[in-house]
Design a protein that fits this description.
Layout: H1 5-14, H2 19-38, H3 50-62, H4 67-86, H5 113-122, H6 130-143, H7 147-151, E1 158-159, E2 164-168, E3 174-178, H8 181-194, H9 218-231, H10 240-253, H11 258-265, H12 270-273, H13 281-291
Length: 296
C-alpha cells in the first residue's frame, strides 16, 4: 500500500478541500494501485510511468467508466503527483504527459423565468413547509447557491438591511452574495413559521429546518424540487444545481460582467464560469456587433 497520509493531510489542511473531494482522491489512488496490482506491478508512486497511467485509463474505459469520470479520476491523481513534485519526492511528473479523455462541452439545463415562477406557484402555501420551500427556492435562484451552501445557511449569515448574505463555499471559503428583495421578503415570511418549530439543540442558528427542528438534508432539497417539477409536468431533468445554472445564465444574458458572475458563484477560476458565455449566442453576437470597432 502506498503511504498517502501526508498528501491527505496536505489537501485537508493546507488546500482546505472538502471531505467529498478528499474521499474522491483516496478512491482514485486506490483504483490506480488496484490496477497496478492486477497487472503484477509493485511500482511505487515514484516508479509509475506515463504509459502505466495511460493504460490505467484505457482499462477503466473498458470497464464502462465514462470519459467525464476518467477525467475527474485523472485530476485526483494529478493532484497527488503535483504534491510529490512540490515536496521534492519525484523529479518528473508522469501525469504531465497524459491527456484527459475528451468530454466535450455539456451545457447545463436552464429554467426560464416562467418555469421558475411555475415551480414557486405550485408550492402549497397552506402546508407547514410551504413558506420554507418558497423561501428556499427563492434563495437558491436569487443567490446562485450550491445545495450544500443552502442547507448550511445560518440565521447569523443573513444581513437583510444591507441586502446580502454570507456564504460558506467549497473549502470553507466565505463570500458575500447580494440577495434580492423578493428572497428577503420570502425568508421573513418563513421565519414566522420557523419560530413555531421546536428546534433541536445545537441547530438554533440553521435557517432551513425540517419538521423535527433539524437542518434540511441535500437529499430532501432534491426530493422537494423533483416533486414540484413532476407536479407542473416539467420535461427538463432538474436539480438544485439547475437553479444555480439558471441564476448565472440569466445574469449573463442580462449583460452582467463574467467576472462579477464568477464572484457571485464562488468559482476559483474564470474558466469554470466561462461555460455560461456559450449559453446565449444571439446575446454574445449582439454584444460583439455593438462593441467591436469594425462594426461601427
Amino acid at each position: 500500500m502506498w503511504n498517502i497520509d501526508d498528501f491527505i493531510a496536505y489537501v485537508k489542511i493546507e488546500k482546505s478541500l472538502s471531505s467529498n473531494t478528499v474521499e474522491a482522491y483516496i478512491n482514485d489512488l486506490s483504483k490506480l494501485q488496484a490496477y497496478l496490482g492486477s497487472i503484477g506491478s509493485t511500482a511505487t508512486p515514484q516508479e509509475v510511468t506515463s504509459d502505466m497511467l495511460f493504460d490505467f485509463l484505457v482499462y477503466e474505459g473498458k470497464q464502462g467508466i465514462k470519459a467525464r469520470s476518467q477525467a475527474r479520476m485523472l485530476s485526483g491523481i494529478r493532484a497527488f503527483y503535483k504534491y510529490l513534485l512540490m515536496d521534492n519526492l519525484i523529479d518528473v511528473d508522469p501525469t504531465s504527459l497524459v491527456d484527459a479523455p475528451a468530454v466535450g462541452l455539456k451545457l447545463p439545463d436552464v429554467l426560464t423565468l416562467h418555469e421558475i415562477n411555475e415551480l414557486l406557484e405550485k408550492i402549497d402555501k397552506t402546508q407547514t413547509e410551504g413558506p420554507r420551500n418558497v423561501a428556499m427556492l427563492e434563495t437558491l435562484y436569487s443567490c446562485g447557491l450550491r445545495v450544500s451552501e443552502l442547507v448550511n445557511l445560518k440565521l447569523s449569515d443573513l444581513h437583510p438591511k444591507e441586502g446580502y448574505i454570507k456564504v460558506r463555499g467549497k473549502g470553507s471559503k466565505e463570500r458575500l452574495s447580494p440577495v434580492s428583495e423578493e428572497a428577503i421578503k420570502k425568508i421573513k415570511l418563513y421565519l414566522i413559521e420557523r419560530n413555531k418549530i421546536n428546534i433541536a439543540k445545537g441547530y438554533e442558528d440553521f435557517l432551513f429546518l425540517n419538521r423535527r427542528g433539524k437542518p434540511l438534508t441535500r437529499q430532501m432539497v432534491f426530493i422537494i424540487i423533483k416533486k414540484l417539477a413532476e407536479a407542473i409536468g416539467l420535461q427538463k431533468k432538474i436539480s438544485p444545481h439547475t437553479f444555480r445554472h439558471s441564476f448565472a445564465t440569466h445574469l449573463v444574458e442580462g449583460g452582467a460582467d463574467l467576472r462579477a458572475v464568477q464572484e457571485m458563484l464562488g468559482h476559483e477560476s474564470i474558466l469554470t464560469t466561462e461555460i455560461y458565455s456559450h449559453l446565449d449566442r444571439s446575446y454574445l453576437r449582439e454584444t460583439i456587433i455593438d462593441c467591436h470597432p469594425r462594426s461601427k
